[in-house]
Amino acid sequence: MKTALIIPAYKPAKELLGLLAQFKDNDDFLPIVVDDGSGSDFAPIFDALPEGVTLLRHPENRGKGAALKTAFRHVLDNCPQCHLAVTADADGQHRYGDILKVCETAAAHPGALVLGSRKFEGEVPFRSRFGNGVTRKVFSVASGVSVYDTQTGLRAFDRKVMRRFVDIPGERYEYEINMLLTAAQSGIPIIEEWIETVYLEDNASSHFNPFKDSLKIYMCIFKFAASSLLAFLIDYVLVLLFSALTRGWGPSASLNFSVIAARLISATVNFTVNRKVVFKGNESFGKALVKYAALAAVVLGLNLALMHLLTINLGWPIPLAKIVVEVLLFCMNFVVQGKFVYRKQQS
Q: Pick the residue with more confidence: 187 or 336?
């Protein structure tokens, strides 16, 4: 059983050759390097690749996600002897021993995604420490799964998981966070193995743009926030409208009708947008609708209970109470919808 060692490379330094040299006599690995449009200036690096390394090329730079998927397709179509794959970065930040350790864990846990996670100890560039800390929190909220190092490029998995990853959207750095979100939403176990934290020359070789690439990474939660904001605005306006129209029914009856009617309308909009735009799961429409309806019923019950507590029992005005209740329910909705309602089924 062989393992495909996949290394996406964009304008790599000599560290790429050093890493590959360590695998030259290891027959358990099939090294695959993807030149992601590095250009003629870096031809000497690729010309010096050790014998036995498969080189795939993009004529122009397409991004790390595209490079990884190019390698995945190559392995699935041309390398039946590779039952496992491990991805590593070209900048020398992943040690030979750590790569072996992550692969051993993946071999022992079929169907899992194994991450080589760093503890960020010692001399770590501020942007790397800060970026990972923020992404860690965002991912936890977005998926309901805690992962310490969400940005590690050292990842190992089997062919079954690889087939699932080929279809994940994302061409650049956002693809790696999408891999984690897909694993969390599909029920693929995520296992972390601690590895050495290595940053060469203050991570100067990294092509990660902290602003542009971070925006892409966080886009899933941004889209959910926008969808939830749209539903909230619809719900908010309708609650105020219906409560004004039914004021003569008495406080309790008016509140019950207003909250329920507004929620039915806003929930229909929210379900459609989240299914088509935010999570893009492959759960059937019927199953997703049933799950969403069950979640909506729970949320509606909580919404009614909290609105009664704040407005009727505590005397808060309806506009203020509605805002507080929606904020409290936002995070719960994100986690449950992504993980259970629109989840992508593992094939």
A: 187
146 phi and psi angles, rounded to 5 deg: -90, 120
In angstroms, the CA 216 to CA 171 distance is 10
φ/ψ of 315, rounded to 5, equals 80, 20
Name the 3-class secondary structure at 238: helix
Q: Report yes or no: 114 and 106 within 8 Å, Cβ to Cβ.
A: yes
Helices (H), ranges, the chain: 15-22, 43-47, 64-78, 96-108, 126-143, 159-166, 174-186, 212-217, 219-245, 251-273, 285-307, 318-336
Q: What is the dihedral angle through the alpha carbons of 123, 125, 129, 135, rounded to the nearest 10 degrees?
A: -150
Whole-number Cα distances in Å, 58 to 22, 76, 272: 25, 18, 37
Of 161, 153, 214, the closest CA to residue 183 belongs to 161
Say how far apart CA 36 and CA 304 lie, in whole Å.
54
CATH superfamily of 2-217: Spore Coat Polysaccharide Biosynthesis Protein SpsA; Chain A (3.90.550.10)
pLDDT digits over 121-155, tens only?
Answer: 655 555 555 566 667 777 776 666 788 888 889 99
Alpha-carbon distance values, 66 to 80, 99, 105, 166, 170 (Å):
21, 22, 26, 10, 8
Judged against a pLDDT cut of 70, whether residue 160 lies above it is answered with yes
Q: How many CB atoms neighbour CB 257 within 10 A?
A: 16
More confident position, 307 or 336: 307
Burial of 46 (0-12, 13-18, 19+ CB in 10 A): middle
pLDDT in tens, 68-119: 999 999 999 999 999 999 999 998 888 999 999 999 999 999 999 999 998 7
Query: For residue 3, what are its two tokens?
Result: 């393992």
Cβ atoms < 10 Å from Cβ of 23: 21
Position 326, amino acid = E
Q: Where are the domains of the chain?
A: 2-217, 221-341
